[in-house]
Specification:
By secondary structure, the chain is mainly alpha-helical. The protein has a domain of 54 residues. Helices cover 44% and strands 5% of the residues. The protein has three helices and two strands, in the order ββααα. β1 and β2 form a beta hairpin. The radius of gyration is 14 Å and the shape is globular. The N and C termini lie far apart (43 Å).
């Protein structure tokens, strides 16, 4: 028997274009962002390291792209951390 997420298809980047393999949008697409936030919900540093590594790959794979635009695309969507009480 399949669980509730059996139909979920992961939204992963296709290299070298860095478009989503599932929906074709620039990666990280909205579903990928939600999935990453859920996967790394208790490991913000891990998420930042993962996204920084993907950004580095994108900078290599997309030499004509503006580095600032790629950094915005890969990192600026992250919510700001909440300060401890």
């Amino acid at each position: 028997m399949y669980g509730p997420h059996a139909r979920f298809r992961p939204h992963t980047p296709a290299r070298p274009s860095f478009r989503c393999r599932t929906c074709g949008a620039p990666w990280p697409c909205q579903p990928a962002r939600l999935g990453l936030l859920w996967t790394y919900r208790n490991d913000r540093i891990g998420l930042l390291v993962y996204l920084a590594a993907q950004l580095q790959h994108a900078l290599q794979d997309l030499p004509g792209a503006n580095p600032r635009d790629l950094a915005t695309r890969f990192l600026r969507w992250l919510p700001h951390p909440t300060p401890p009480p």
